[in-house]
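Give me structure tokens for this 1132-residue protein.
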Amino acid sequence: LISTLSFAVEPPSDLNFKIIDENTVHMSWARPTDPIVGYRITVDPTTDGPTKEFTLAASTTETLLSDLIPEIEYVVTITSYDEVEESVPVIGQLTIQTGGPTKPGEKKPGKTEIQKCSVSAWTDLVFLVDGSWSVGRNNFKYILDFIAALVSAFDIGEEKTRVGVVQYSSDTRTEFNLNQYYQRDELLAAIKKIPYKGGNTMTGDAIDYLIKNTFTESAGARVGFPKVAIIITDGKSQDEVEIPARELRGIGVEVFSLGIKAADAKELKQIASTPSLNHVFNVANFDAIVDIQNEIISQVCSGVDEQLGELVSGEEVIEPPSNLIATEVSSKYVKLSWTPSPSPVTGYKILLTPMTTGSRQHALSVGPQTTTLSVRDLSADTEYQISVSAMKGLTSSEPVSIMEKTQPMKVQVECSRGVDIKADIVFLVDGSYSIGIANFVKVRAFLEVLIKSFEISPNRVQISLVQYSRDPHTEFTLEKFTKVEDIIEAINTFPYRGGSTNTGKAMTYVREKIFVPSKGSRSNVPKVMILITDGKSSDAFRDPAIKLRNSDVEIFAVGVKDAVRSELEAIASPPAETHVFTVEDFDAFQRISFELTQSICLRIEQELAAIKKKAYVPPRDLSFSEVTSYSFKTNWSPAGENVFSYHITYKEASGDDQVTVVEPASSTSVVLNNLKPETLYLVNVTAEYEDGFSIPLAGEETTEEVKGAPRNLKVTDETTDSFKITWTQAPGRVLRYRIIYRPVAGGESKEVTNPANQRRRTLENLTPDTKYEVSVIPEYFSGPGSPLTGNAATEEVRGNPRDLKVSDPTTSTMKLSWSGAPGKVKQYLVTYTPVAGGETQEVTVRGDTTNTVLRGLNEGTQYTLSVTALYASGAGDALFGEGMTLEERGSPRDLITKDITNTSIGAYWTSAPGMVRGYRVSWKSLYDDIEAGEKSLPGEAIHTVIENLQPETKYKLSVFAVYSTGEGEPLSGEATTELSQDSKALKVDEETENTMRVTWKPAPGKVINYRVVYRPRGGGRQMVAKVSPTVTSTVLKRLKPQTTYDITVLPIYKIGEGKLRQGSGTTASRFKSPRNLKTSDSTMSSFRVTWEPAPGEVKGYKVTFHPTGDDRRLGELVVGPYDNTVVLEELR
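Here you go.
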């Protein structure tokens, strides 16, 4: 069984913001420890606005965010990426506030780093959002901001976390389902565009809707994934919630409730899962949601992790192993043991995770029979969390874990005692003239000290001594002495030879003549040479030294007095710090003897360990077969006897993370699965023995390239000339994607290409209302893969009408007209709603008509109007406007003028209809263009007196009803003021038998002429005289003598007749009356009447008389023509 681990790119950390000015923010972060290619930064406003995205180099740790808008909240995301993948995002929020100090309760600008869930926290996450009227449009944005923040805590993807949003009020609607958005940026954009719904609060119905419509397979819910619902409300539900909530939890959904403002606390607990402490949240106001959002995110993330731990993806529960212990622990090595799982398993997965940074995590897999395991190459002095899980296929049990700390690295300062120390040691001593006899004695003493440090025997340490000057000379070989006493005696007695210093020649001698089997040199035993010299070599020494070291001889160099250190370092084995020793004179040997002895001893032990390791026979004949895109078989020939197991370790050649598979000793092959296609893998096969490991058998193999087809072709964002396609990546190492598209009905094919890491494309410049066949073909190094083909269609041209105009309003109608919308409009939908509130009504008109008359409207009412073009594929955008009907406006009726004087006119009328605010009465003289006036009256008035008018003048009177929107039509009439008393009378004089003069007062205004009408009072023909307007007197002629005439004078104007002037006059008689009538001689019953005779031929005189005041008792006397007096008698 093989298990692989996938490590995501490490994200940046310590995200910080510093506001520079009202449009600029300084952003900084800490680099991840992993090598990366660069950073991707996204700046996304939470309100409508463009999203900015840019990349920066890996060396950058700060940048400036410019062109920001004050008071707008931004979500800033930063990820790190390498050549293959991208890290989880680190998200912060910022708002640049202006307008002075922050008031209490306001949010302060700065950093809000959004908490993140674990990388493996994948779930089906649904938000049920209250969109009732009580929330309000502005507060609804706070809810959307919270949803965006919580979503950002998860790793979004088709096979990762899916998100759905449902909004409810009186009814419930799906904003988008779990299977709609798999890209984080598309998901956040969709959340930001969710419209506010409005209505009542029917939470119970909405929860039931989730069960039936959202947490279903068709809506994107998955088997084997945690399910979470977050219900957000601001008030008490108007229906029952407890039973629907119980049913929702009963299908495995973990429910969180967030109450705002007037939410009912008891109801929130009925809705949510238990314990309520972790699942129920409440805030006083919408702007306080941000204060608890990280706490909510933390609880949701924990809930998802707990659900993941409880899910078994439909399989039976796998019991974990038990009794995990570390039986051996060293600085680099741990040996583990555990009791096997009682369940049927296919193997065990072992994970060693260091608790400190900088150390590598170890992942190993073993078969079902293995219950002990040795793990090596650990970090010293490091605490590891060690977990072992039972595996059945790809399903794992709960892990059993322990904590164990490796030992610190020990630095040995003494040779081990009781350890089987073996070595062949040769002392190469400089015996040149420069040393001298006295100092040579000190060299012997130094050698004695060194030799006494070792256990001398044929099975332990063997010593040889070579003295050199011009030529080397063997004092004794490795095999000569088997006791330390014999060697010490030989050292104390070997002679001082003298000569030049040929160090190079001497080292060649040691390699060719001493370290040979014939002189006692043993195989598989450490070989050590200790050079003691006091001067510079006289011959070439570098090449002999290299050859000696390459013969597996460890060289130590001791320099005395004039010895050149650089020469000693070139001769000695590295490192020089432990292999080169210098003293100022021969008396100082004792100072370095202990340190030199320990260095020699430690190197012998190390070399013995290396030799011992070489004795562990490694496996042989490494080969690979059955190579596929995702696996290959590793084969080897068995190692030596007593093999405990085989450790097969493999890693990507370009990576650091390695996986180890442990196979039993009987195995000679293993199939390595779950590999990456077309990837070079380095493989080591190591034989494990009871007390150590062999050297690894190394090899490499490359998996084959994967070729296939993309999946899940989706078409979105259709417009009239474009649509967007997305797809799931094709398997393997895709170079690019080729997209071919053409109209299904026939036409030219077109082609575009996409980079391999871009699996979306907007196809543009398409024909409206056309169905296309689209194929996405992956391109590989070896050629094209299989195509993914589907159909997509552009939308028909849709738009909105323009230039809405309202005309011809009446009290119940108005006419609407507009410019037509583009495309094939089927109908226009016209809606109209009273602005003050009321039912919305609608009418439809044909698509080729761009006007209509709205009827049955309320009088004096403002309406909100909309005109929407309806197409075969749906509706275009609405064109909005407003219009207002007229108030009912009319005229007063029945105008009557009376009580007219020479300076005033009384006007009376019947009230006008409707809400009359007042009346305006105007008047104007019809005789000139100067005299006019008006007056305003209250709405209840029905009469008025117009004063200060001109006498004998005709006026036009108008009465207007005044409404809030204007005036009605006028009620008009005419009236003429009376004449003044002086103007009424005519003066008649100069009467004759046939004429008389008539004189009158002039009429006002522009008189055209005067018409004088006169007629005998006793009957007869009427006569008319026309008189110039400038003349006010005329002589009436051709009259009858002694006849009374009724006379009328009429001024004539353009508009008609003026006020008449009336009088009468009598013509003189042909018979002249007597004159100078006198009375005299009065008595009790009589008096005399005397007169002067009338001229002409008088026939007689008639005298009539009656008492004053009583003309009924008329008396009469007739006398002759010549009489001019008479006595009236018998009077009272």
